[in-house]
C-alpha cells in the first residue's frame, strides 16, 4: 500500500531541495565538518546529492549510500550532468557492507529520524561504527516532535513545468509517546494538463530521542567523546535541530 521515497517523492524532493539547497544552514555547517575530517567521508541518506555534489566540488573525498533506488538514480543523473564521480551504494544502513572505511560518517537534517524502529536505529549505529576508521567521527542530526498535532492536514501544489505539477497532501496520523515516534501519511498526485498521471502513498515515520538517552546509546555501543550542538551552532537558533558528534575508538 505504501511506498517510501518512490518516484514521485523523489521528483518532488529534487524540485523543492535541489543540489546545493541548504536547510537551515546545514550545507555550510557539514561542509566545515567534512573539511576538518581531512579524509574519506560517507553521507548516509545521500538522496539526490543535495549535499554530496557541492562537497565534491569543494574537493571532499565523498561517497553516498541510500535505500531508495529512485533517489540514487537521480543522484547519479545529477553527478553525470556535472561530469562528477562519486561511488553510490544502494544499501540499508542497518546492514551496511561497504568496501571502505571512513574518517567521517554524516547523516544530516533529520534523515536519522527516518529509521522507523529502535532495533534498526541501533543496528545502524553499529554499522556506522564498523565503517569508521579508529578516531573517525560520526555526526547525525536528531529532530524533536515540536508542533505535531494529530489530525492536522495540509496540501500544496508544486508546478514542475507549464504542463505538469504535483499535488502533495500530508496528514498527521499518530504520535506514539511510548515508542517515541510520529506518523504521517503523505500522498503525491502528479497532474499533466488537467489529467492525473500518477499517485504515490507514503507512510512517513519520524523517531525522536532525548539528549541524555542518545548519549547513553552511543556510549553503550562503544562510541566516545560524544557531544551535542543545537541548530548548527547559530546564535539565533530556536532549538529545532540537535546534532550529535561521537568518535569511534
From TrEMBL:
<feature type="domain" description="Methyltransferase">
    <location>
        <begin position="41"/>
        <end position="136"/>
    </location>
</feature>
<dbReference type="InterPro" id="IPR041698">
    <property type="entry name" value="Methyltransf_25"/>
</dbReference>
<dbReference type="Pfam" id="PF13649">
    <property type="entry name" value="Methyltransf_25"/>
</dbReference>
<protein>
    <recommendedName>
        <fullName>Methyltransferase domain-containing protein</fullName>
    </recommendedName>
</protein>
<dbReference type="InterPro" id="IPR029063">
    <property type="entry name" value="SAM-dependent_MTases_sf"/>
</dbReference>
Amino acid at each position: 500500500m505504501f511506498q517510501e521515497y518512490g518516484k514521485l517523492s523523489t521528483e518532488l524532493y529534487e524540485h523543492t531541495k535541489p543540489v546545493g539547497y541548504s536547510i537551515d544552514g546545514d550545507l555550510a555547517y557539514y561542509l566545515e565538518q567534512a573539511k576538518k575530517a581531512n579524509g574519506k567521508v560517507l553521507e548516509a541518506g545521500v538522496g539526490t546529492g543535495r549535499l554530496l555534489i557541492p562537497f565534491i566540488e569543494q574537493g571532499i573525498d565523498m561517497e553516498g549510500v541510500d535505500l531508495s533506488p529512485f533517489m540514487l538514480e537521480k543522484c547519479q543523473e545529477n553527478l553525470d550532468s556535472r561530469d562528477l564521480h562519486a561511488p553510490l551504494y544502494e544499501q540499508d544502513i542497518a546492514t551496511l557492507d561497504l568496501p571502505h572505511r571512513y574518517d567521517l560518517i554524516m547523516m544530516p537534517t533529520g534523515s536519522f529520524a527516518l529509521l522507523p524502529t529502535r532495533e534498526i536505529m541501533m543496528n545502524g549505529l553499529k554499522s556506522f561504527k564498523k565503517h569508521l576508521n579508529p578516531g573517525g567521527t560520526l555526526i547525525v542530526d536528531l529532530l524533536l516532535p515540536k508542533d505535531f498535532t494529530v489530525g492536522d492536514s495540509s496540501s500544496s501544489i508544486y508546478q514542475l513545468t507549464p504542463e505538469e505539477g504535483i499535488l502533495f497532501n500530508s496528514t498527521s496520523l499518530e504520535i506514539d509517546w511510548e515508542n517515541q515516534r510520529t506518523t504521517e501519511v503523505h500522498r503525491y498526485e502528479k497532474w499533466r494538463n488537467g489529467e492525473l498521471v500518477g499517485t504515490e502513498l507514503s507512510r512517513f515515520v519520524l523517531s525522536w530521542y532525548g539528549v541524555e538517552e542518545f548519549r547513553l546509546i552511543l556510549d553503550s555501543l562503544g562510541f566516545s567523546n560524544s557531544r551535542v550542538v543545537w541548530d548548527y551552532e547559530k546564535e539565533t537558533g530556536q532549538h529545532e535541530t540537535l546534532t550529535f558528534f561521537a568518535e569511534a575508538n
